[in-house]
Amino acid sequence: MGPSLAAGWPIIGLLPASSELAAEVAVQPGARFAPDRVRAVTFALVLVTALASLESTVVSTAMPTIIGELRGLAVYSWVFSAYLLSATVTMPIYGRLADLYGRRRILLIAISLFVVGAGACAAAQTMTHLIAARVLQGLGAGGLMPVALIVSGDLFSLRERARIQGLFSGIWGVASLAGPMLGAALTVTFGWRSIFSINLPLGVLAFVLVATKMIESRATRPDPLDVGGALLLAGGITALLQSVLQKAGGAALSSGLRLALIAGGLILLALFARQQGRRAHPLIPPNLFRHARTVSPYLSGALLGTTIFGVDTFVPLFVQGARGGTAMAAGAVVTPVVLMWAVSAALAARSVVAFGFRRTAQFGSVLILLGCTGLIACAVLHARVGTITATCALIGAGLGPSSMSQVLAIQHAAEEHQRGVATSLVPFFRAVGGALGVGALGGLLAAGLSHRLGPAAEAAGALLAHSRSAAPVSPEALQGLGAALEASLLPVFVVLLVLAALNVGVASSFPRHADPDSPRV
């Protein structure tokens, strides 16, 4: 947690003075938040963002220790999956609740659930207890980042909002790099429970800041919450996400169960879409999907999610499995993705103001396209790991402009009374698109390995763990498995390239521009 907050302090210091921000927010009467508390609210949002971002990475390095104490190796993957599922399905629900009942109240609920869940995780005595606590923690995490983005849209004009969201991206980047190391250090020094208990004082501080400084003048609307729609959406998305999980109770999902989950999820989502069109007060307003200015950022977000998850999943596998690199090399090769994402997001903040949403999104999507083209070239030409790393850095440089444009374009296109749910759908589509996309690409990889290796495809796992295998794998077998893995990964990279090309076209439908000094109230 420390590195992320330390990274945030200098940037907060670069923000305009309180009086300047107050003047900007107070241009229009009836602003949602008190202008004289903008800096305190901004720091609260930074703290909330740090909580959400670190929790997504800090747990991984502590898992071997947790398994050693709590046992439950067969279900350990649910420690991650339960958190991901509960956080993802609640994002649009939090967005709608923020529109109906106010940003402050809903953010306080999200922080409370997150902190209580973290405390329950720290007190877990069994793996089942830990998984249940992670569900609770995820229910809170689903509202942290979306509501923080929503509030930034309320507080600032486009010019200042771009800078603030560049700060948020920087925090995510630092957390992604520092999270695993911080988790390892806490586990070794204080025990694995400390990776959860460290959230308690920080969460309480965030709660106090939001409760005392985020004074909201327009907190409620008379519209009822569409509970039925929320249940249909949550059920459909949960089924689809479970269908792409690689493990369930320690065993791979059967084809029949996977198809049943996909069919059930699609049916529930179809019922949800039909119901929303008939509701007077829908959970997700259908008009958000009737105009290119809102549809294109959502579609781009889903495509971007597939790129992010795909590069993070398959490039390390390519380096370690097909190129014979170490686990450290496999992890290091994607580090520039995160680093360049954070840097390019900060630069994109100025680009959006100067050149507009569309040009910024197009520039980012072209960089991603070039990076995906480079991945294929690396696979075909047997490039060195350094070249693969540089290619990943190019993809990361495109993620900043692309992601920044999506959020800012949606916030300017959506009406004020729909801005909460409209903003929350950006990270929602990115997470769902990434999870489903990687699941489909994983199926493509598995099909390629089965075609090339037949029944021996199951032995491909030894390629990554042969140094710890009870039955050592011969160099000849490793070479054959590496060649099969490389050939099977090539179609995966081709699909990523096709999706990147599609994203260039989608970016061309983004809104062109907006007044950078127009206030959002």
Plain-language structure description:
This protein has helices at residues 2-13, 18-25, 38-55, 63-70, 78-101, 103-122, 127-155, 158-190, 194-197, 199-213, 227-243, 255-278, 292-322, 327-332, 335-381, 385-413, 419-453, 462-465, 475-507. The longest helix has 47 residues, at 335-381. Residues 1-30 and 462-471 have low confidence and may be disordered. The chain has 19 helices and no strands. The chain is an all-alpha fold and 521 residues long. Helix 3 (38-55) packs across helix 8 (158-190). The protein is globular and about 70 Å long. The two termini are 32 Å apart.
Helicity range = over 70%
Share in β-strands:
under 5%
The outline comes out as: globular
Gyration radius, in Å: 23 Å
The whole-number mean of residue pLDDT values reads 81
Would you list the SSEs in sequence order as H and E?
HHHHHHHHHHHHHHHHHHH
Biggest beta-sheet profile: none
Going by helix content, strand content and strand pairing, the class is mainly alpha
- How far from one another are the termini? 32 Å
Uncertain stretches: 1-30, 462-471
Number of strands: 0
